[in-house]
Amino acid sequence: MVRMKLSLMQAKIGEKIRVIFWLVSILPFLVSVFIISKYHTYLKIGKAEIIFFLVLAAVFILNGFFILIKLRRRILKVMRDIIQGVNRLGSEDLQHEFRIEGDDELSELGASLNRLIERLRQTKTLDKSALGKNVSRRFILGFTQVCSLLLGEHKEKVVPAVLKELMTDGDIEIAHFLKADKQGFIEERSRNKMGEVILGVDVLPSEKLFGYLSTLSVPLIIDGQRSTGDDTVQLFKEKFKMANLLLQPVLLNQETVAILVVGNNQAGFVWDEQDILWLQSQASLLAMAFCYYNLQQQLKKLEIRDSATGLYNETFILSRLQEEIKRAIISQRQCGLIFLDVDNFEKIRSRCDSENIKSILRKIGILLSDSVGEIDCVGRLGDDEFVIILPEKNKRKTLDIAEQIRKKIEFAFSEEPDAFLRLTISGGISENPVDGVTAEELLSKAKRLLAEAKAEGKNKIKF
Amino acid sequence: MVERGLITAEQLEEALKKQRQKGGLIGEILVDMGLVKEEDIAQTLTAQYGFPYLPLSNYDIDPEVLKVIPARVARQYFLLPIDKIGNCLTVAMSNPLNLQAIEDVEMLSGCMVQTFVATSSDIRAAIEKYYGNKE
Fold it and tell me: B85 vs chain A: nearest CA distance in angstroms?
């Protein structure tokens, strides 16, 4: 409490200035008066000198006092004005103007704020005039939503989010998302005002509408004014059981990957430009979502490392195992395999948070990597399953390495204060050619031996 | 082989270069390049390391002995069990320097292994003859 009061860090600017004034003028004056009155006989100071000193000090103090008043007026008042102005800006009042005179930093700050208000005013005017139904705002909101869903890898939530967004328009009674695949345009999701529904509105290749949808590159507008007499239009109306329809293709690399359909049954209804623009914007979002998802899938295929441990991932390690076996066959050599699993991992997981688990797995990963040579390969298959490929090592050498690893891990975790964290591992080992000539054969043998090691009391390597 | 005048140092260098590029055994590469015959390789191993040479074409193998080593192991290591007397298994190999392979055979058979050197083509032919399509 005392520290809080003494500290100037917490004080307001006015208090700080006041304290500075006290420290540089009044306080030195009082100290000087005290010293002179107490020790003037020792210091041999006459009355004339004392009077001169007092006058001089009074002049300094007065000067300091005037500076204090000036500073308070210049800084504190202006700061108060700025705070009030910014608060008004926060409540979307764009009429305020900062009037700060002078040519110092404060007047520059005022001018910058005035420029900012002017730009905000222009943006708001544009937004209102160009897109009356706040299409741009909706688009940005939708875009942000889709991006956040994608970044969170919730791909399956993107389409429902778009359909939900479409339903916020009062004119839309139903929205469909038909995904293109080999079997036709299949209804993946549909939604009405009540929530998600399945209406069985698939468009199969045998139907006349299929060919029409496959080549659709611009929105198809069906309402009281447009596209009324056409046979195809009648078929669409019957298919979706709606009098007014808007069909928008979702195009990716000039290929129709899906169709967005919205509709209503209002008599004499006409779709306006903003409805069409909005549906197009939602289709663009979906196209972006597909594009991003495809890229993510491709990236995943290219990834070779496990994100938690930095070891090789399952896809890479399995293909590497097959390659090493081929190499062993060509060079008439051998290839060893160790399959390891943490003992009682479920118990550990139930007692630790995810960060602790990650840290344990990372530690194991480092211990494994440090235990093998440069041409050997360590990977993580599942939660607590690890695989080590040992090219040019037969079963005996593989067993030696596996035993060293088992002991190393037992030792590394033996100092843990909690008993359940003093973890151990079990493993099974196999070898090409003795146990098989394919990755599956070696893995299956090693897994079987691992299960035996677990059954025989864990913290054990079986070969 | 260079000392015995079968190949020159340059030819050996060229073969080693091929081995670095494509892998495989140096003896087989020399044979593929047409620089030496398989028998030269076998005889060199005999002369240099003292492995006895066994021409497999003149030899009949007891099918019971073949059961000691699976076909896939015989195919990959280019070896063939010839005879088993007590705890001693006689094996013909194209590369008797492959000590890890010998260890594997010892582990599989539970026997001490005595190695003979044979040519790759003799072993290939014998594997085909005795193991056929077995795995």
Answer: 23
Q: What is the rounded distance in angstroms from the CA atom of residue A364 to the CA atom of residue A381?
A: 13
Q: How far is B74 from chain A (nearest CA, A)?
A: 9
CATH numeric code, A137-299: 3.30.450.40
Pick the CATH number of A314-462 from 3.90.226.10, 3.40.50.300, 3.30.70.270, 2.60.40.1510: 3.30.70.270
Q: Is B102's pLDDT higher than 70?
A: yes
B106 near A CB under 8 A: no
H/E run at residue B113: strand B112-117
Helix axis angle, A395-412 relative to A354-370, nearest 10°? 140
Q: Which residues of A are less than 8 Å from B98 in CB distance?
A: 332-333
- Chain-centre distance for alpha carbon B48: 15
**Could you tell me if B72 lies within 8 Å of chain A, comparing CB atoms?**
yes
**Set of chain B residues whose Cβ sits within 8 Å of the Cβ of A329:** 76
Sort out which chain B residues have CB atoms less than 8 A from A431's CB and list them: 104
Instruction: For each of the domains in chain B, give its residue range(s) and CATH number, in order of start.
Output: 9-36 (no CATH), 56-131 (3.30.300.160)
With b for 16 or more beta-carbon neighbours within 10 A and e for fewer, the B108-121 pattern comes to: bbebebbbbbbbbe
Instruction: Tell me whether the omega of the peptide bond preceding residue A433 falls within 30 degrees of 0, making it cis.
Output: yes
Which residues in chain A have their CB less than 8 angstroms from residue B76's CB? 328-329, 332, 334, 432-433, 437
For residue B94, give the chain A residue with the closest CA. Answer: A332
User: Cα A118 to the chain's mean position, in Å?
Assistant: 33
The two tokens of residue B12 are: 């050996």
Return the sign of the alpha-carbon dihedral for residues B69, B74, B77, B79: positive
- What confidence tens digit (pLDDT) does each residue in A303-320 have? 889 988 999 999 999 999
Q: What is the pLDDT of residue A140?
A: 58
Tokens 């688990």: give the residue: A357
- Say whether B100 and A330 touch across the interface (CB within 8 A): no
Residue of A nearest to B26 (CA): A331
Is residue A264 a contact partner of residue A285, using CB atoms and an 8 Å limit?
no
Closest CA to A239 of A200, A196, A194, A189: A200
* Partner-chain residue, chosen from A330, A334, A436, that has the shortest CB–CB distance to B104: A334
Q: How far apart are CA A352 and CA A355, in angstroms?
A: 8
pLDDT, mean of each 10-residue run, chain A (463 residues): 46 70 76 78 74 80 79 74 73 73 74 76 54 54 59 67 84 92 90 86 90 88 77 88 92 88 91 85 82 79 87 93 94 94 93 91 95 94 94 95 97 92 96 95 96 95 95
Does the beta carbon of A394 lie under 8 angstroms from any beta carbon of chain B? Answer: yes
- B50 touching A, CB under 8 A? no
DSSP E strands, A182-240: 184-192, 195-197, 220-222
Torsion on CA atoms B129, B133, B134, B135, rounded to nearest 10 = 130
Residues of B in contact with A436 (CB under 8 A): 72
User: Where in chain A are the domains?
Assistant: 11-130, 137-299, 314-462
